[in-house]
Structures are given as structure tokens and as C-alpha cells.
Specification:
flat; four-stranded antiparallel sheet; alpha+beta; single chain; 4 strands; 192 residues; 34% helix
Length: 192
């Protein structure tokens, strides 16, 4: 005898096959959508000019002893060339100083890079809402503070500063605490 769970599964599979046999022809037997009847026209490719490339010069026309033999290469190509027009062109000598061509030691810069001076900023508040952040920044700017906001991990942080002296930032924090009743913290300013 067949187990009840297997019987129920077989009955369920049969119902699914029957419903698919009834529903799929109704769904798939429709008219073609009008947006699929679009004619696509491909333009003809652009006409590029055909460029004739001159043949490679023979080995005989390469520089020998600092001069180029134009007479031999030109006379072999054209018979009507006048030999009075042929000139020998000097070719510059290659560099013989191997030390100039090979760098034995890597170049090291001797200029000292001064570390940037520490700057301090006051973190006033952290919000989840961008609107609250915008309103607080506008209030602080209206009171002549250099306020800005930074978004980190979907949180909006409001800062005032930066200043070169920590004491100036702490004084600014106290002023904001008196004026706006907001407790801030003084932190190092990080350029990101």
C-alpha cells in the first residue's frame, strides 16, 4: 500500500499538470504585442578612404657609417631620377655612454614632505534623517559657523570647523552649547 504523504503529493502533482495544461494555452495563445513589430534599419557602413602604403625599403638603403645611401635605393626604384639631385644625409651617431642609458640605482627624491598640521573639528549631532541634518546645518550657518554634514553608514553627522588649534574648537563647542543647547565633541579633522 502507498503511504498517505506520497498519495497527496501525487494528487497535487496531477492537479498542477492539469491546471498548467488548461491555463498555459490560454496565456500563450495571444496576439503578438505591437511593440515587437518594430522595423530596425541598419545604416550602411561609412566610406573610409583607401590609403596606399608604400613598400618597405630594402636593406641596402639603411644607414651605413653614419650616412644613408639614397642614391642606390632611389635609382633602383625609378629610372628617370637625375643623379645631381641625390644628397647624402648624415645620420646621428647612437649614444655610446652606457651609463646614461642604464640606470643602476633607483632615483630617490630628496625633498622632505612636511606632515599636514593637525586640525580639529566639533561634531555637533548625528541624525538618521537628512532633513534634520539640513535644518541644523542651516541654523549653524545662519549663526556664522562653518557647518557641514558627512554621511557615514546611513547616518548624517553635523560638524563645525575645522580649526588649527584645539582650544579654538573647544571654545566654539562651548559657544554652541550655550546658544543651541547642543553638546558636541572635539575630534581630529579627517580629510576624506
Amino acid at each position: 500500500m502507498i503511504d498517505k504523504t506520497i498519495t497527496y503529493r501525487l494528487i497535487g502533482a496531477g492537479i498542477m499538470v492539469l491546471s498548467a495544461a488548461i491555463v498555459l494555452p490560454l496565456v500563450l495563445d495571444g496576439e503578438r504585442p505591437a511593440e515587437l513589430d518594430v522595423q530596425v534599419q541598419v545604416t550602411s557602413p561609412p566610406n573610409f578612404p583607401v590609403i596606399d602604403i608604400a613598400p618597405v625599403q630594402p636593406v641596402d638603403s639603411l644607414p651605413v657609417n653614419g650616412q644613408k645611401r639614397l642614391a642606390e635605393s632611389e635609382s633602383s626604384r625609378s629610372e628617370d631620377l637625375d643623379t645631381a639631385d641625390i644628397q647624402l644625409i648624415p645620420v646621428p651617431k647612437p649614444a655610446t655612454d652606457v651609463k646614461r642609458l642604464v640606470r643602476d640605482e633607483p632615483q630617490v627624491s630628496t625633498t622632505k614632505v612636511e606632515p599636514a598640521a593637525e586640525r580639529w573639528t566639533v561634531q555637533i549631532a548625528t541624525f538618521k534623517s537628512k532633513d534634520n541634518t539640513f535644518r541644523l546645518v542651516e541654523k549653524l550657518k545662519a549663526a556664522n559657523y562653518d557647518a557641514y554634514s558627512v554621511t557615514t553608514n546611513s547616518l548624517y553627522k553635523v560638524y563645525v570647523g575645522p580649526e588649527f588649534k584645539r582650544s579654538t574648537s573647544e571654545k566654539m563647542r562651548e559657544d554652541i552649547k550655550k546658544t543651541f543647547k547642543l553638546n558636541g565633541i572635539v575630534i581630529k579633522y579627517l580629510v576624506n
